[in-house]
Amino acid sequence: MAWKLNKILHGARALGASDVHLVRGLAPVLRINGEIQVSNGEPLNEELLRSLLDEATTPEQRAQFEQKWQLCQSRHWEGIGRCRVTAYYHSGCP
Question: What is the C-alpha to C-alpha distance for residues 50 and 79, in angstroms, rounded to an integer?
């Protein structure tokens, strides 16, 4: 299964997750009622993480991320509501 950000966020909302963590080597990780739960499915690799970041950001925000190696911004997703996106490089990967 190829992960899509909209699908991840809709699933997280349906499960009552307060946070979604996207980390290389793991399937999306959700915080539900304070507990960390790893989703079932394909682990994220660098290519998938970059694709998900592209879905969440504008070209200007991606340029800022590539320059500063971190980004924190909010966005409204249709049918989900407002979400904050925080991205940073770790071990050379977003």
Answer: 23
Would you put residue 82 in left (φ > 0), alpha (ψ -120 to 50) or beta? beta
Look-up of token digits 């966020």: 9
- What is this structure's pTM? 0.81
Residue 94 lies in a domain: no
Q: Is the pLDDT of residue 77 over 70?
A: yes
Label residue 87 by pLDDT band (50, 70, 90): confident
The CATH code of the domain that includes 37 is: 3.30.450.90
If DSSP codes are grouped into helix, strand and coil, which group holds residue 23?
coil
Rounded Cα gap, residues 41 and 35, in angstroms: 19
Q: Which of 47, 44, 57 lies closest to 87, judged by CA? A: 57
What was the pLDDT predicted at 73?
A: 83
